[in-house]
Structures are given as structure tokens and as C-alpha cells.
Amino acid sequence: VRSLYRHCAGITLAFLIAGISGCSSPGLKPWHTVELDEEFMLEMVNDGRVQTFTDYLALEDRLFGQLEEEIYADSETGPAHELERYSSGSAADPEHRQHNWNHSFELSHPAAIGGVLLLHGMSDSPYTMRALANTLNQQGYHVIALRSPGHGTVPSGLRTTSWQDMAAAVGLAMQHLSIELDDRPLHIIGYSTGASLALNHALDALDQQEIPAPASIVLLSPAIRVHPASGMASFKNSLSALPGLDGLAYLAIMDEFDPYKYNSFATNAAAQVHRITHHVDGRIQSLASDAEVAGRLPLILAIKSTVDATVTTDAVVDNLLIRLP
User: Fold this and answer.
1) Which DSSP letter does residue 309 get?
2) Tell me, what DSSP letter sits at residue 257?
């Protein structure tokens, strides 16, 4: 037994040594490590700093000002950096485009028939919702495309943001729509992780009457269930705090050339996807045993591709639809 123990311990140590030597990442750039402290967090609601969606937008403006000062102002420019997102004035610099779709945006309508909140996916930005937002607005809807916390700025934004922060931002946006639209119906359209946030808000509205309830939710390629192995992301992320293992803070470290989506993917982002899907799945499972409460859920439309490599049809059917009335 002792021999087997020593053998296993030796293998474990070998893996740890390999991990330490292979996980330090000299390729990490400032946008992989800088923490922007003007980013929204749930505690800002709890301590009264952010109470409305207007407050959220004001904080977001300060956040992008900080991004300019701490990232763009110190980044190299010129032809050699023409495709770098964080090189000021480059072809990939979103601030020098006609519209920076990384910001939350709101489209009002003089005779709105309802309101729609659009929620993008993990590592995306409101850019992914722009065409849908314009179409819905033209059809008579007051639309908000929310920039979820941690997104639209630097990849390091997703190293510390939690799904609870994102859910709190959803709550502020829905409260704003409710005030703007009075008693007209509200709807949420969520893509990927945004779909999980939409479901979570609908479930919250069942529990708390003061929370604006959506009349319907549309789930686009919804993150309903992820592989159990994703639960290891939290452990891997915790190791990134150790000397020499900073690279473990990312599942992928890449050049940033997309103006509206992170190419690098923070390990914490994967951990948060696992946590919210697990949380929502548990709530849906409990709800299925109470037909009266389940019947008060809003209408749900789920849309996904049969060749979706991330979300399976089985997950949408077995973990969501089959449990509903």
C-alpha cells in the first residue's frame, strides 16, 4: 500500500511540476491582468451605490473611461498594431468605429407595444444583439440590449465577475423597462448564457412579486446544461493565484483582434456558466413538482441548431421543456 501511495504521489507531483513549468504565461498582456474597479457588482446594489439602470449606465460610462486611461493610453499604436483591439486608432479599435456596440444601448419607441430585454452570451457584447434590437424596435418595441458585467472591455473583466453580478444587472434593466412601459408586456430574449439569465429572472419573479415578470422568454441556443467537467474550472481558477500559475486564469489566451468579443477566455467565465446552469437546473427541477407554480411561468420559446457543438437538444428537452406544463 505504501509503495502504491508513493507511486501515485510521484505521478501527482510530476503533473504539478509540469503544470507549474507550463502554466506561467509571459504572453499575458495588460488586458489579461488589469482589474477595472468601475465594473458593476451585486454589492453595489446592496450598499446603495447603484439603484437604477440609469445608475448602471453612468457607472458603465466611468468604466469605459477607465478602460481608455489604463489600457488604450498605454498601448502601442502604428501599422504594426493595426489589427490589435487595444491599439488606439487601429482597425480593430471599437472606439473609433461609427458606434461602439460594446456599450449597453436602449431604443425607445413613441408608441411602444411592449418592452424587450436582450441578453448576449458569455464573452460576447451587445453587438451580437444589434440587428435583432433594430428589427424589434421597428416593429414597435422599446428595446434594451444589456452589456453584462465583465464584458465589452477587457478579457480580465471575466476573471472576477460572478453570475450573480450579471443577474443583478438583468434585474436593473427589467425594472427600468417596467417603469418605462407601465403595464405593457415585457419580454426577454437571451442567447447562450443570456438564456440562463433570462430563466433565472423569470424564476425570481415567481418568488418575489416586486420583480417585473416577463410575459415571454425566448432562448437562443440556451446554456441549459454543460459538461460536469466544467465544474473543475473553479478549482483551476483558484490555482491561478499561485506563483507561476497565472496562465491557469485562462482556458485560452489569444491575440485580441475582434472589436466586440473576447478571443481569450477566462477560466472563471467557464466556472460561472457551470454555476448558473446548475443553479437554474435545480430550480426548474424543483418547480416541476409544483404544477400550480410551474403554470405561472411565462411562455417559453427555445431555438437551437441541431449541429450546435455546445448545447445539445437533449439538454434543452430533458432539463427544461419536458419539466414544464
Assistant:
1) S
2) -
237-249: pLDDT as tens digits: 888 888 888 899 9
Q: Which helix (H) or strand (E) holds 107?
A: strand 105-107
pLDDT greater at residue 236 or residue 204: 204
Amino acid at 307: V
Q: Note the pLDDT tens digit of each residue in 48-69.
A: 999 999 999 999 999 999 999 9
Residue 299 three-state SS: strand
- Residue pair 33/250 in contact (Cβ under 8 Å)? The answer is no
- The per-residue pLDDT for 134 is 98
CA dist 224 → 151, 182, 273, 297, 313 (Å) = 21, 31, 10, 17, 10
DSSP-assigned letter for residue 152: S
- CA atoms within 13 Å, Cβ hemisphere of 199: 32
Interacting residues of 176 by C-beta distance below 8 A, sequence separation 6+: 52, 53, 54, 144
**Whole-angstrom Cα distance, residue 286 to residue 294?**
9
Q: What are the beta bridge partners of residue 300?
A: 217
Report which of 159, 186, 322 is spatially closest to residue 251, judged by C-alpha positions: 159
* Length, in residues, of the chain: 325
pLDDT value at residue 15: 38
Cβ neighbours, 10 Å, residue 24: 15
pLDDT of residue 281 exceeding 70, the answer is yes
DSSP states of 120-147: --TT--GGGGHHHHHHHHHTTEEEEEE-
Chain center to CA of 83: 25
The three three-digit cell numbers of residue 196, written as one number: 440562463
